Amino acid sequence: MRRSVRDAIVGFTLIGGIIGFSSTALWLRGVRLGSSHWTLTALFNDAAGLAERSPVTYRGILVGSVRSISVTSESVVAELEINKADLRLPLPVTATVGSASLLGGSAQVALVSSGTPLPPDAPLPQEPGCQPTRQLCSGGTVVGQEVPSLSTVTATMQELLAQVQDERVIPNVVASIEQIEATTNSFELLTVLLQDELVKAAPVIRNLELATAHLNNIVASLDNPQTLSELKQTAANAAQLTATIDAVGGDVARLTGDPEFMEGVRNLTIGLGELFGEIYPAQTAQ
Fold first, then answer.
1. Whole-model pTM?
2. Above 70 in pLDDT, residue 285?
3. How far is CA 186 from the centre of its chain?
4. Of 100, 114, 104, 119, which is closest to residue 143 (Cα–Cα)?
5. Checking phi first, is residue 57 left (phi over 0); if not, alpha (psi -120 to 50) or beta?
6. Please, are residues 88 and 118 in contact by the beta-carbon 8 Å criterion?
7. How many angstroms separate the Cα of 113 from the Cα of each of 135, 147, 251?
8. 3-state DSSP call for residue 244?
């Protein structure tokens, strides 16, 4: 009896060890027994150090791991295992791969969803009613992209420097700066010349201002009803004076044209002369 119990204990111990060893092996291979999970495929141009069992996150929370990685002539194919069965991701969804920080670290995959949030009653990714046109379902494929890291930034800077050296950007910039300086000097000279011309034109501008003021005064006077009435009266008086002068001039012309009138004027003049001679003889003699 004791031997049977001892044999049973040994047998159960062996079975437990086999089960523990198998569970540990399965866990190391990424197999989760008794857990609800679903998978998806991510395509990357550059895996950036991604490896099996690398973490998969969503909004900074660990939601799964990388099950396997394969390389093709077109891309790097990573199979991702998501351990959260209730993770509903609206499309479009992208997967970014990169280091935990800019300075380096272990590579990880981050899922990014930019679609409209799904309702709470939306089907789960592994359910038959999952809608692949609206949400990411189990077995779906997402496009991956690489996030900037220190190595990628360095490579980009090297490409930019090479491009600058090939296209001779710096000499062209120097030439542009010299041209800008020459243009600035020309503009300053033009400004000085314009200032001199403005100084010379200042008296003319003042005379124009005075003439404009006088013209404004004249216009203001013409707009006065009293001034207009006086101008009309002056014009009428001038017309009357002109008519009177014309009438007198006509009479004088007629009188000087009469011979008898002129003879009488002549005799009157002689007689007046003789009269003054008789009245003032002494003064006449002198």
1. 0.42
2. no
3. 29
4. 114
5. beta
6. yes
7. 10, 16, 119
8. helix
